């Protein structure tokens, strides 16, 4: 039998649910992730959490690449890494790659992206590895979000101090790394505005439904969305590219169960360097546009864009297919759009 106090607590809980009934079930689920854990878990998290961003920075590694060759691995805490044979010059374009939870710079997708960036973009590619922290629980990683952000800001400021130009800068982040990229860019702005930022299925748990203007993170910010369970529902980038079924699920999950709709995002982004992913010029009838729909030219394709077209902003819907490389041909796209 419930005690009087427990009965009152239950009534309060039900009342709160009624007050916040306008929140979606997904946002309620994400809200649970932000609730304080039990006392034992909280004590464990606090004891693990490094005290400052400098403690976090000591655990991070920088992987430098030139021409798709790893030239140097250094501690992020040592500011003399640029003088230690990285091969990176201030006159180079530079790219920053950030991984997600339970990932590292050694992951297959990280190496594949570094390869494509090296080939198509050139310059210096730097993967920032924070896997020592990312290999723990999501809650532990989340509690270190501000510290990791501050450490990465310090790294980029060191690059700038050594002559690197943010107008030649590009950042990419997947999942939790996508949220980091946005936070880092917004911390650097407006004094140091990164030229181009792309994110892939930016993490939602722990971050949604708080409204953040991700467009302020860089001069040109593209966000690719692919899942309903792990990706964010905050669509505030200059471009929000809704992959597959309304940016919520990928047909290819049926053939790539190990990746899921979330993990497929980064594979699709990498494939878009070599295969055309055509966008629809209208919103699919089953989808809801939460942002203005972009006006796109005929045969428009999405992916990494060296020269950002400022005329194309808003939501962009890009159907994907069942099998690798997950794109649709022009003929398939016209059939899907109901054209003869």
UniProtKB/TrEMBL annotation:
GO cellular component: extracellular space
UniProt entry keywords in alphabetical sequence: Secreted, Signal
Subcellular location: Secreted
Domain Lipase: 42-209
A GO molecular-function annotation: lipase activity
Pfam families: Lipase
Main location: secreted
Leader peptide range in chain numbering: 1-24
GO biological-process terms attached to the record: lipid catabolic process
Similarity section: Belongs to the AB hydrolase superfamily. Lipase family.
Stored PANTHER family: AGAP010328-PA, LIPASE
Name of protein: Lipase domain-containing protein
Organism in which the protein naturally occurs: Drosophila guanche
